[in-house]
Amino acid sequence: MSRSTSKSEATVAIRYVDRKTAESVLRAVEPDNLVIPEGIRLDSSVIGDTLTVQVECARGLGSLVATLDDLLSCIQAAENALGGIT
User: Fold this and answer.
1) Any domain includes 25
2) 17-46, pLDDT tens digit by residue?
3) Distance of CA 66 to the CA centre of its chain
4) What's the pLDDT at 32?
5) Within a 10 A sphere around the Cβ of 27, how many other Cβ atoms?
6) What angle do CA 59, 43, 83 make, to 5 degrees?
7) Phi and psi dihedrals of 17, rounded to 5?
8) Which one, of 74, 73, 81, lies nearest residue 29 by Cα?
9) 15: domain CATH number?
């Protein structure tokens, strides 16, 4: 029995107090995105004071959710390291 998986997408956008903070968080999480499993694509950017990460996943919805969970955990750790930004 073959299992078909469709492409799932999500966008995470987080607004910070300023552009410098958004860029600092992006730089902190970028090393985690150097080796990405096949079938997952991440595109991150900072526009103004907003960090945006687009995730495309062809590995099923569960994999997309796991990727988002990991991404948000890394962002939270970066925020904590920068001084508890909320």
Assistant:
1) yes
2) 999 999 999 999 987 667 788 999 999 999
3) 11
4) 66
5) 11
6) 110
7) -65, -25
8) 74
9) 3.30.310.50
The domain total for the chain is 1
For the chain, how many residues are written? 86
In-domain check, residue 1? no
Residue ranges in the chain assigned as alpha helix (H): 19-29, 61-81
Please indicate, yes or no, if residue 58 is contained in any of the structural domains: yes
Entry pTM: 0.84
CB 14 within 8 A of CB 71: no
Is residue 86 assigned to a domain?
no
pLDDT tens-digit map of 46-81: 999 999 999 999 999 999 999 999 999 999 999 999
Residue carrying structure tokens 């103004």:
48
Determine the distance from the C-alpha atom of residue 8 to the mean position of all C-alpha atoms in its chain, rounded to a whole number.
Answer: 14
* Beta strand spans in the chain (E): 8-15, 40-47, 50-57
| Domain span holding position 37 | 8-81
Q: Residue 30 is which amino acid?
A: E
